[in-house]
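Collaboration report, partner site 2.

Our partner group contributed sequences for two proteins of shared interest, and the home lab folded both. The records are reproduced in the order in which they were received, starting with the first partner submission.
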Amino acid sequence: MKYIKNFLLLSFLYSQFLFSNTLENFSENSKLLGVSLSPYGDTLTLIAENNFGEEVLYLIDANKFVDNKLTVINSFGAPNLRQDGGYSITASSICGVTWTGPEDFIFQICGKSTRNEGQIATGIWYKANIESKKPKKYIDSGFSRERGSLYDPLPLDPDYVLFQSGDYQKLNGLWDFETSAVIKVKTNKRNASVQGSTLFRSKQYCTEDCQRTGIFISADNDPENPVAIIGSSDYDEAYLHLYKKEGDSWEDNPSLVLPTTLKEPFVGEDQKIWYRGSLDGKSDTLLVSNSLDVLPKPVNLGNCKNIRDIYFHPDSLDPFGVLGDCGDSLKVVYLDNSSKGARWHKSLVNQFPNSIIRFGWTEDGKKAFVVISSSTNPGDFYLLDTDKKSINYIGSSNQSLDLDLLSKSELFKFTSRDGMEIHGIYSHPKDIEGEVPLIVIPHGGPKGPYDRPRYDPWVHVLNSFGYATLKVNFRSSGGYGDILEDAGDKVWGTKVIDDITDGV
């Protein structure tokens, strides 16, 4: 017992030592996994893995984040997670932090598995505020039939959050179908599952497209005048249905039926509805409609037909830009050059060339955490203060990496032997000229997932041993439209292999 007490005391002192010194000490002793910023920028959260391999959530006073100092308000370890044999979970992990108020937040516990890379969502949520002694369990629907995902944290309303829930229904003796709903859940009570006031529930049974359900606020963010866009399907066809609310009830028949090549709809300024996808299934682009009752039209993005990210600033519900896949490179296409977000993004592009730049803005747009990444950088985190016109380094996902030794990934496209446009990613060993052995790394799925030119440790390990690497987004891959994704059906062992061979 004495040994255990001494060990705990040493661990506590070690943790305090990290934060009684400079930011460099923290960066040297911790691997930074994620960052978030409270709605008005007063508190910064850092999810870090320490030298003991444990994940810790630190709450930092963002107003005192000056002169390379970290002032810790609070800290939590990742709560223990019960074992689940189906997933071979070996440890718990914190899946990001979502703020539900100026001082309140929730986070989901994920599992680390020996069978899967990355994190496994469990449906177990915890809640806390900046002064909590420890987080409290909020929702525990882990591995149940009724699945829930966070839809909108309502950061200006600390009493509620919106969850999106899908539950299986027994039909003709089979658990084949789902309904989907958006549910308003109180934050001051513990729930065994996603329970609360149902804002909308689909009237039609559906299968794979249920999780596209959403309640979308229109008419100047008036919550009394919402719009719902839901997915529904049968064994042969799939659609999106747009419903309006009429008084206290939803209309019985949808105002508009959309093909499922349109996805991720959101409401912009002046009741515009934005979508990702396409009407012809040939790309994954950005579309917009000026009315709720008409089909959208694609936004002109030049030769960047497929988008990889959408950029927003709190000043507008409309996006100020997109990250486009232009075939041989990624490029930011600005939709509103006058936006404050666009101006800040352009200034950082000059400071961090050849990088992907992402923002996490406060509600007033005065502060943001910034993530800088690329195929040679797993991620550096910064704090942007627009009033002070300053950007301060927070930490890195891997402080020990020498980025100058890593090889850049190159995008390219080619035409397959039967005439389809296929995209790929190539990485050549640095400082080695001429032909070298090539290793092909196919992505999983194979239907739906696709490779992007982001940091991949396996690529750099192989490059360091003198091997080039190739990733091919063959037919069946997502990210390039439904036609390419569906073209791989029933030909995984033939044409999919031909695409990979043609890429070589």
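Second partner submission, folded after the first:
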Amino acid sequence: MNRNYKLSQQFVVRILLISLFLQSCDTSINLPIQREKLEDAQVEARMEIITMEAEKATELGKFEMLPIELLPEILTYLSAEEIKEVRGVNRAFYKLTTGYDEPGLVGVENRPSQYKNTAINKEIDFRETKISKLTPETIPSFPFYQLMGQVKNLPKEFWPYLQGSSVHTINLGYNQIGAEGASQLAQHLQGSSVHTLHLGFNQIGAEGANQLIQHLQGSKVHTLHLESNQIGDAGASQLAQHLQGSKVHTLDLSWNQIGDAGASQLAQHLQGSSVHTINLGCNKIGDAGASQLAQHLQGSSVHTINLYNNQIGAAGASQLAQHLQGSSVHTLHLGDNKIGAEGASQLAQHLQGSSVHTLYLNGNQIGDAGASQLAQHLQGSSVHTLDLSENQIGDAGASQLAQHLQESSVHTLNLYNNQIGAAGASQLARHLQGSSVHTLHLSWNQIGDVGASQLAQYLQGSSVHTLHLESNQIGDAGASQLAQHLQGSSVHTLYLSWNQIGDATQQLLKEQYPLLSGIFRFIW
């Protein structure tokens, strides 16, 4: 139904354009911008097609009676290639598709008569050799206003002309714009289409962040990256207060020397704002800050919080999870903290009544015992994605972890860069039978040829369809046995890069197992 509806719309658009073209044929002002030389037979053939389509237009109705305001909207159903063709028909069509009376206009003072959503899907870097030479006086008008959607390193001289342009994403990272520059930029965003701002590493400071967010009220900006700007506790608190009247829903404040007090005050002021995703990674938040932060998230819209690489220990993780019950948080990043085995166990217990379904605990010294207890307490929770990479988990821990996942909802398990060998991989796969796990990351372990072969055998009765085995000391023999035993399993995607598998073996596997290209995606 939707496909037929879309096709009908495209058909109507084409008929409309033909109708408009015929209307403009006798008007001298609408001469074609570029006219190719055609033989008489070609002209006759084209006119015959136009006549046939015009007859269809007559049957469907008089499109020339449509209000002119509808035409730009109707043209949005055409592809970029079709727009190019339409643009070259004549001056009327050129203006209709570009907003300009004539091509080749230069300078930002030449604004289009109407806004067109024709931005290309490519970031334009104003520090590139050719573009860096352009000024507001020399830049081609049509590309600046109508084609640029994502811009990087945009000079200050262009900021006042963002209104009326198609620019929606600005990346000014590492531009040293400072507090004053951040404030000026935000003022120029009023009335513009910009919704995403990257301002990391700009020495904006607390006052600059405060001025920035105040001027963003009333703008369309919803995603704001302010990493590494020396904002601190006071700046975080002030910034959060002014978020109330803005559209910002995604906020990156990583690397900003925010401590316990700043995290607590920030979360407190988030209530009533639109913020649902916040990154506080690489700050100075400890146990008290994590606990207070979680308490103040009650009643807020925050569903994703990133606290990686802070100073959160076992007590902080436990209290954090406890206070998340009743909140909207479903994704929790706690990687590279100091949670340990006991903290992981307590954290998991308190997740029972929470909405958390995605949990990152990489780099937390959890070990075998912690992994086992964590998985045991996840039974009955909502967690379906679990990252335990870089946690010194060995063979015993991998085996026990998998056993306890039987009654859990976990479907994605990341055990990257642990201490899992052949025996651990084999036991892990054996216990995954009957579990919900379908995506398994085991890259950068020590599985080897024997482990790869045994792992594949036990995956036969499991739900695993995506398997990461990069950098596991797997050679030609292991790869061959792995491929053989995966036949008949659910695995359809297999990552084997950074192993010791030769070109000859790769080619041989493709010849021996011709269905590999269809059944498996071998990514060497």
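Feedback sent to the partner group on the second submission included the following. The radius of gyration is 30 Å. The longest strand covers residues 123-125.
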